[in-house]
Amino acid sequence: MVSIFQQKPSVSQVQNSNMLKLVGVAVLAMATVVLTVSHARAADKLAPEDKSFLTNAAEAGNAEINASQLALQKSSDPEIKNFAQRMFKDHSQVGEDLKKLATAKGVTVPDDPAMAAKAKILLLSKLDGHNFDKQYAGMIGVSAHKDAVTLFKKAAASAKDPDIKQFATINLPTLQQHLEMAQELKTSVDAEK
Question: What is the pTM assigned to this prediction?
Answer without folding.
Answer: 0.77
